[in-house]
Amino acid sequence: MTDWVLHLIDAGGYWGIFALMVIENVFPPIPSELIMGIGGIRVGQGRMAMEWLLLAGTLGTTVGNYFWYLVGHVLGFHRLKPLVDRYGRWATLEWRDVEALDHLFGKYGQIVVFVFRFLPAFRTMISLPAGLFRMGHFKFLAWTAGGALIWNIILAYAGFLLGQNFRDIDKYVGPVATACVVGAIALYLWRLATWKPRG
């Protein structure tokens, strides 16, 4: 994966960074840690400028997240009820849980979106409920971009400081990402087996 990402970054420059970050947030098989880390290496080599790298990475992240926000926004909160009534067992949700989430986003939506930008796997997932529960477009974009910028600064400077050694992160990111997915599936299966509706 590292060589493929390197090829796209070297061929596309800042547009390559932007495209990879969009793809990473729409279909997240590529870790942002790898993309921005390699970008940081290129800054250290004098082949990129940090400010343009951060701009491209943050815009790509925001656009990718906005895609899922729009999916949720089009689906809409009220269209969820028939789905929850029919398939809530498989999502381990009741309508009162959905209403509680709606209240949470109404009160703390911007904080939730900002904080989740720093959590693996949840960074993209949080965009869908933000759209479902009608968080304002501007608020969503502003808090997503703010969190993404901070996260991208951390990753890019890690790549800049660690240099070529940062490429070794792919050996660790892959297994960690797999472990997170397996853990999430196991947690879901446990919840599915033990969940009982309160109604």
Describe the structure.
The protein has helices at about 1-25, 30-45, 50-75, 80-90, 95-115, 120-125, 125-130, 135-160, 170-195. It is mainly alpha-helical. The protein is elongated and about 60 Å long. The relative contact order is 0.15. The model has no long low-confidence stretch (mean pLDDT about 80). This is Alkaline phosphatase. Keywords: Cell membrane, Membrane, Transmembrane, Transmembrane helix. It is found in: Cell membrane.
Name a few traits of the molecule.
mainly alpha; 80% helix
Shape field: elongated
On the 0 to 100 scale, the average pLDDT is 80
Q: Total helix count?
A: 9
Q: What's the end-to-end separation, in Å?
A: 47 Å
Give the uncertain stretches in residue-range form. none
Number of domains: 1
Main beta-sheet annotation = none
**Radius of gyration, Cα only, in angstroms?**
19 Å
Helix-strand pattern: HHHHHHHHH
